[in-house]
């Protein structure tokens, strides 16, 4: 319901089917080029030369597939690294607010906020959420939760992974972490649903 209007808008605007947005090609190309930071300026510059977002998307997907075709084993070797990026602090969002993008400049308050409020919370929730998934194997919806987690991990590996890719996992990790801490299966069920 949220994505469908944007799919319609983008498809009408650019006269072709665009399922969600026009940045998928950009993310895919960066992922095939070895991740976000080493090639971000080159990718940006090449995409700015394209006439519109739909052309940028097509061009970027083409570049990504060309990179995979040229070195499929090289692409596969970097997938584990991309998955590991989910645990890294990504200072890019703050760096865009100051001069010197990709120079490593980051404000200490931003770094501390990300570390304490995002990374630490995530690192605490992952083991607890996984424990909750193991403890409550018979619960309805567990299979869909595992499918959702698997899908998000696969997307992170196929494209490139930064900390915002964690966000779709957080609600499920929170619920299953709470179920693990309390060992209460009722947390996983809406009221009125029998065990």
Descriptive overview:
The protein has 195 residues and is an all-alpha fold. It has helices at residues 3-14, 24-32, 40-48, 53-70, 72-77, 79-84, 92-95, 108-135, 142-158, 170-182. Helix 8 crosses helix 10 (170-182). The radius of gyration is 20 Å and the shape is globular. The two termini are 30 Å apart. The mean pLDDT is 79.
Descriptive keywords:
195 residues, 10 helices, globular
Topology:
Elements: H1 3-14, H2 24-32, H3 40-48, H4 53-70, H5 72-77, H6 79-84, H7 92-95, H8 108-135, H9 142-158, H10 170-182
Helix content: 55-70%
Strand content: under 5%
**Helical run tally:** 10
Major sheet attributes: none
Q: Which class best fits the helix and strand makeup?
A: mainly alpha
Q: How many beta-strand runs?
A: 0
Order of helices and strands: HHHHHHHHHH
Shape: globular
Distance between the termini: 30 Å
Nearest-angstrom radius of gyration? 20 Å
Mean pLDDT: 79
Question: Residue ranges: pLDDT <50 for 5 or more in a row?
Answer: none
Summarize the structure.
With 195 residues, this protein is mainly α. It is built from 10 helices and no strands.
């Amino acid at each position: 319901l949220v994505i469908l209007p944007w799919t319609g808008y983008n498809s009408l605007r650019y006269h072709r089917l665009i399922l969600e947005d026009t940045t998928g090609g950009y993310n895919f190309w960066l992922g095939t080029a070895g991740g976000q930071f080493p090639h971000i300026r080159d990718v940006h510059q090449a995409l700015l030369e394209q006439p519109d977002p739909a052309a940028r998307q097509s061009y970027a997907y083409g570049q990504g597939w060309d990179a995979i075709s040229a070195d499929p084993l090289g692409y596969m070797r970097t997938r584990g690294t991309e998955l590991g990026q989910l645990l890294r602090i990504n200072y890019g969002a703050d760096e865009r607010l100051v001069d010197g993008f990709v120079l490593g400049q980051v404000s200490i308050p931003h770094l501390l906020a990300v570390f304490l409020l995002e990374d630490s919370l995530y690192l605490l929730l992952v083991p607890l959420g996984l424990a909750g998934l193991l403890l409550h194997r018979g619960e309805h919806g567990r299979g869909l939760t595992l499918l959702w987690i698997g899908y998000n991990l696969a997307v992170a590996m196929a494209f490139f992974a930064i900390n915002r890719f964690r966000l779709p996992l957080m609600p499920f990790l929170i619920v299953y972490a709470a179920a693990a801490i309390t060992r209460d299966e009722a947390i996983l069920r809406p009221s009125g649903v029998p065990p």
